[in-house]
Amino acid sequence: MMVVGLTGGIGSGKTTVANFFRELGIPVYIADEAGKRLMLSSEEIKKEVRELFGEQAYPGDEPDRKYIASQVFNDSEKLEALNNIIHPAVAADFQRWLSRQNAPYIIYEAAILFESGGNEKCDRTILVTAPHDEKIKRLQFRDNSEIEEIEARMANQWSDEKKLKLADFQIKNTDLALTKSQVEELHEILLNSRKN
User: Fold this and answer.
1) Minimal CA–CA distance to 35: which of 3, 65, 72?
2) Across the 196 residues of the chain, what is the mean pLDDT of every consecutive 10-residue run?
3) Which end of the chain is more exposed for a tag (fewer CB within 10 A), N or C?
């Protein structure tokens, strides 16, 4: 089955695009949601995260996401160590999920698809882009975040320019109707590429 990676910088509208693919009947796997689910359910992950960040990381059964985020935002080594715990578990979970799908292709949505090398496991990749100011506005509205905090999170991701060099397709997400029509066009291209 064809695996199509979907990514984009924070605030670009990946989820919106993923939902448009869902409306077309395409199964969507969202890596970040899987990571959150596994942090709740996997005793192995809980143990390793506690070892990395201390007992504060899991005051009870649930992770203290704010505390963990505060530990990794300005510490790239700790962020990498956390990713090395979560990513293999997500990769295994994805393979189990993939084996149960029956569709012409599936969407694998991941925020750091290129940064993590996840694009190498995809047959095609889509990058969702939006203007910088638009991303900030969306994040302020969605998360009630301060601009400084948003900029710090953006700094942990590659620029759109860098990702565009690796992406097979780009969806410019500035207007919902236009975004939806781009998804529909891309859906046809992906269906046809399977036949060729």
Assistant:
1) 65
2) 94 94 97 94 94 93 91 87 92 95 96 90 96 87 80 82 96 95 97 80
3) C
pLDDT value of residue 169: 97
- Do residues 112 and 8 make contact, with C-beta atoms less than 8 angstroms apart? no
d(CA 22, CA 12): 18
Residue 76, pLDDT score = 84
- Find the angle CA(186)-CA(119)-CA(89) to the nearest 5 degrees: 120
Q: In this structure, are residues 128 and 167 in contact, taking their beta carbons and an 8 Å threshold?
A: no
**Within 55-125, where are the H helices?**
65-72, 76-98
- Residue in 123, 188, 178, 185 with CA at minimum distance from that of residue 13: 178
What residues have CB less than 8 Å from 159, skipping those under 6 apart?
A: 9
Task: Give the position of tokens 């990769």.
Answer: 91
| Three-state secondary structure call for residue 49 | helix
pLDDT at position 74 is 77
Between CA 131 and CA 12 the distance in angstroms is: 8
